[in-house]
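Please annotate this fold before class:
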Amino acid sequence: MTAANKRTTATKKTPVKRAPAKKASTKPRTTSVRVSKANTVKSFKVAPEKETFMSLKPSVQTLYWLVIGVFAIVFTLWLVSLQAQIYEIYDSIDRNNAVNTVTPQPKN
């Protein structure tokens, strides 16, 4: 009998208590509007022109553009002469092939 008594006392567990549910507050909330400080925005100002746009006074940029332009023209002329040499090679090959080939004459 003592074994039966031990089983009944060991199986009893205390119930788990849960936290009580929170109640909705009855006080009305007051919302306040935040006023942000006005940021001082510094705007860009147009710089005064040092020289007029249409002035003919040369500058360092004029020299740069002149060098770039001359380089572009020389490069273009070099490409054209290279292309002409290639076409000359093709023409000489065609002339050699025309001499070595026999074309049949049509009979009249």
